Inverse folding.
């Protein structure tokens, strides 16, 4: 049974996450940026060792804390192989990361950035980074962004996941902090059925 801790950090409504296998005290930190004292307090209180730091993508507001967390915990940094930032272990689509008995499957979900990944955890939940938010999706008007790739990531990957998966986004931009794949398919206006061309035009009109 995976334990997930959602931690609001910084002034940009970011979420940092800790995933832990409490049975053996092993954990991973996802997207550390600001307010690292919150992370360390939880780790120390729970007596969790950190095996990995995993970045859903490498925009500064998701990686600022990498080196400090690595220095304090000895954790290794995982990023997608397309990343140009500093990391220890590259991953690619379909790869499995193990933290204790927790099974994390990597989905390559570019669109917001070239190195964006989502993380399906124990077939119970999915960390979507800045690809899918509650009620929205990530920006596609930034350097390295691509609306056509976002279309593939949203409709070809995330919307095809189990409806029951709980969605944990990279930012607190919605009307609540978590959702489900089913709920996003039903209510998220960016997941309305569209052709690729319609989606690209739609995203250009919302920039």
């Amino acid at each position: 049974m995976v334990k997930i801790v959602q931690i609001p950090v910084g002034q940009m409504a970011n979420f940092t996450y800790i995933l832990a296998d409490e049975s053996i005290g092993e954990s991973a930190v996802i997207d550390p940026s600001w307010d690292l004292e919150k992370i360390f307090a939880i780790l120390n209180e729970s007596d969790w060792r950190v095996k990995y730091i995993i970045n859903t993508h490498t925009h500064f507001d998701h990686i600022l804390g990498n080196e400090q967390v690595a220095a304090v915990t000895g954790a290794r940094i995982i990023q997608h192989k397309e990343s140009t930032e500093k990391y220890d272990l590259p991953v690619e689509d379909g790869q499995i990361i193990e933290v204790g008995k927790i099974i994390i499957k990597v989905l390559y979900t570019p669109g917001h950035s070239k190195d964006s990944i989502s993380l399906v955890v124990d077939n119970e939940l999915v960390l979507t980074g800045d690809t899918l938010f509650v009620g929205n999706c990530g920006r596609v008007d930034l350097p390295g962004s691509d609306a056509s790739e976002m279309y593939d990531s949203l409709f070809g990957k995330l919307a095809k996941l189990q409806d029951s998966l709980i969605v944990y986004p990279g930012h607190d931009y919605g009307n609540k902090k978590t959702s489900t794949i089913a709920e996003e398919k039903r209510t998220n206006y960016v997941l309305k059925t569209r052709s690729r061309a319609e989606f690209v035009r739609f995203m250009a009109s919302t920039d």
Observations:
- The radius of gyration is 16 Å.
- The longest strand covers residues 14-21.
- Helices lie at 36-46, 60-63, 66-73, 147-157, 181-187, 196-206.
- DSSP finds six helices and 14 strands in the chain.
